[in-house]
Design goal:
This protein has helices at 10-19, 22-25, 36-46, 62-71, 87-95, 108-148, 188-196, 218-232, 258-270, 296-300, 304-313, 317-332, 338-359, 370-379, 383-401, 409-420, 427-434, 438-449, 453-468, 476-483, 488-499, 503-513, and strands at 2-6, 28-33, 50-54, 77-82, 100-103, 169-176, 202-207, 210-216, 244-248, 281-283. By secondary structure, it is α/β, with parallel strands linked by helices. This is Stage 0 sporulation protein A homolog.
């Protein structure tokens, strides 16, 4: 602690300097005063912790020095020294907070006791002040928390006293960009303070693992926008700002509406799942205007798996991408929590896998097992990562099926018919799958095969039904369904047309040959 000695007699000052081992007592002498004016100037500039002050000095008396120093905000301890044991001086000194009054000649033990008591008093005050500051900060954080969550009683709040008075407010949340990072989040609040050159332009608190900033005033909002546009939205790779992810709510113009801006930012933080690659910022304008109620079952009814399966088989990458884009948009506007979105996407992928493995039973389709599909999707942090996983798997499937390497689109169409003849196939459906006009495709089909689409499809179905008739466990009507005919009489008619005999006669003939 700093000690200041003031006496108009140099011998007294020297005596005090060497009377005690000040360093051992925890003090260093920061200065000396030889008159009242000189002492007042020095102590208000040096701000010593303890002042040893003679009560009778030229220019200003000790009591006048104490009075003027207190008026200027000096809070150090005074120990008065005097050659007069005058009780009236002591009484006046007590009015200015002086608690120790020593008479000359100074006794070594009394002086040591006086300075150590002053030191202990200062330390106790510092501890108390620290506790008060901690309690105040804790109470302030609690009030700010209630303001954010709209739990305050405005009639009891003094926004001026809270230093929350402003014309405009905006809430900013920030966290680590890498959600699996265990590193401490970079102190963006301090960067904003420096940018604003004013510590009262924002409030900062920690809330549920999120860093919360309440911006106050147009200057603070504008500085944030400038930082965001120039440095945060596209941060330099590897820079500290590259490690941050931010969301911000709408500007509000009353302190009691701060919670609305916070709710925006909080919802955006939950929706970071929908960010695109390397996106570091989401603002209130990125919120959907409305959230239609779409549940997981509605997605499964949307025939996404069937569409994807068909476009994979037809190697129609453009339509496959369009389906994925539609899925992305539907999910963005759906009223679904992220875990439900992931579960829905896993269901879609597993159904696509089921369609393809059922269609190409004897072919090795490069799909992970169901557990691996679920865990891979669960581990992803962003929707774009999951859709990239979809695209990669679909590309591998198309390569395995072989349609991408066929010499012509017509080869791909015939390939598709061979594996899907049991479905309710129409020329228009095939044309859409492969990106053709149905009328044009009908002409190309006839020119390539020498037959109409329906005639070719009937031939494929009848050829496969002949193979199915080898298995005597299946009834004829069951074979009709497996071959793609829902009407068994129609199947009989077509079979007789192409084979010359009925299905039952064909099976009996096979039995005789056996």
């Amino acid at each position: 602690m700093k000690l200041f000695i003031s006496d108009d007699e140099i011998d007294v000052r020297e005596g005090i300097r060497y009377l005690l081992n000040w360093s051992e007592l925890g003090f260093h002498i920061c200065g000396e005063g030889k008159n009242g004016l000189d002492t007042l100037e020095q102590i208000t500039r040096l701000m010593p912790d303890v002042v040893l002050l003679d009560i009778r000095m030229p220019k200003l008396s000790g009591l006048e020095v104490i009075k003027k120093a207190r008026e200027q905000g000096f809070i150090g301890k005074f120990i008065l020294l005097s050659g007069y044991s005058d009780f009236s001086y002591a009484q006046e000194a007590i009015r200015y907070g002086v608690t120790c009054y020593l008479t000359k000649p100074i006794d070594e033990e009394e002086l040591q006791k006086a300075v150590l008591e002053a030191k202990e008093s200062i330390l106790n005050e510092q501890i108390m002040q620290k506790k008060l500051l901690q309690y105040r900060d804790k109470a302030r954080d609690s009030i700010l928390h209630d303001i954010l969550f709209n739990k305050t009683n405005d009639s009891f709040l003094d926004y001026h006293d809270m230093m929350l008075e402003s014309y405009v407010y905006q809430v900013v949340l920030y966290a680590n960009y890498n959600q699996d990072s265990y590193q401490a989040t970079w102190d963006f609040a301090e960067i904003l303070r420096l940018a604003n050159k004013n510590h009262n332009s924002l409030e900062y608190l920690k809330q549920d693992h999120l860093n919360v900033i309440i911006l106050k005033g147009n200057f603070a909002l504008n500085r944030f926008q400038e930082l965001m546009e120039h440095y945060i939205s596209q941060p330099q790779k590897g820079s500290p700002l590259d490690s941050l992810f931010l969301t911000y709510g709408r500007p509000v113009y009353l302190a009691e509406h701060i919670h609305s801006s916070f709710e925006d930012a909080q919802l955006l933080m939950k929706r970071r799942f929908f960010c695109h690659f390397n996106q570091h910022v989401l603002g209130y304008m990125d919120l959907p205007k409305e959230f239609p109620t779409i549940n997981a079952n509605a997605f499964m009814e949307n025939t996404y798996p069937e569409q994807m399966g068909n476009y994979i088989q037809s190697a129609n990458r453009q339509m496959l991408q369009e389906v994925l884009e539609k899925l992305k948009k539907d999910l963005y506007y759906a009223d679904l929590e992220v875990p439900i979105v992931k579960h829905t996407l896993a269901d879609i992928m597993i159904q696509v896998k089921s369609i393809l493995t059922h269609t190409y039973g004897g072919m090795e389709i490069p799909f992970p097992n169901n557990a691996a599909i679920i865990s891979t999707i669960e581990e992803k942090y962003y929707l774009y990562e999951i859709l990239d996983f979809f695209t990669l798997q679909f590309e591998m499937c198309m390569n395995a099926i072989g349609s991408p390497t066929r010499e012509s689109v017509m080869d791909g169409i015939l390939h598709y018919i061979q594996y899907n003849y049991q479905e309710n196939l129409k020329l228009g459906t095939i044309a859409e799958l492969f990106g053709y006009n149905s009328s044009y495709l009908g002409k190309v089909f006839h020119k390539t095969t020498g037959k109409s689409f329906n005639a070719y499809l009937d031939e494929v179905r009848i050829e496969n039904s002949k193979k199915l008739l080898l298995n005597e466990e299946n009834k004829v009507y069951e074979i009709a369904l497996l071959a793609g005919y829902t009407d068994v009489n129609y199947f009989h008619k077509k079979f007789k047309k192409y084979v010359g005999i009925s299905p039952a006669e064909f099976r009996r003939g096979l039995s005789k040959e056996g």
